[in-house]
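2024-03-11 09:14:02 DEBUG pipeline.ingest accepted 1 chain
2024-03-11 09:14:02 DEBUG pipeline.ingest length=137
2024-03-11 09:14:03 DEBUG pipeline.predict start
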Amino acid sequence: MLKQALADAGADALTSAQEGQIKQLVESYKEANAPKAPGEAGLSAMSAYQESILSGDLEGAKAAAATMSAEMAANSRTRLEQQAELMIQILGVLSEAQVQKLAENAQTTGLFALLQRFAGGPMGRRGMGGPMGPPPM
């Protein structure tokens, strides 16, 4: 994907060093973002949520929902921060001329979407992009 985008933009091809660096960045990202089991707080909140609903306790369900949503928001923020870090690192591997040609050819949104593919899609691995596969070289 990246190789084709560079070719389409008339930019220099990836060097083997660049390709190796990008693959290493993506591997590190995948390792750092491997699925993790829910934390104790999340499991407790889910249990409390279920119990509250089944016992007709709306206030208890709302309190548990607040705990669960706070954990989800924190996890989402972390994923977005890690995705941004990966995308910026990949830009740092490319030459200034390569980035400029990609930006001119694909425009800002196209370049951004291309970089997102390295993180697994628009929302990262758990989002619309599906499971992470090999880097979109």
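2024-03-11 09:14:41 DEBUG pipeline.report The radius of gyration is 20 Å.
2024-03-11 09:14:41 DEBUG pipeline.predict end
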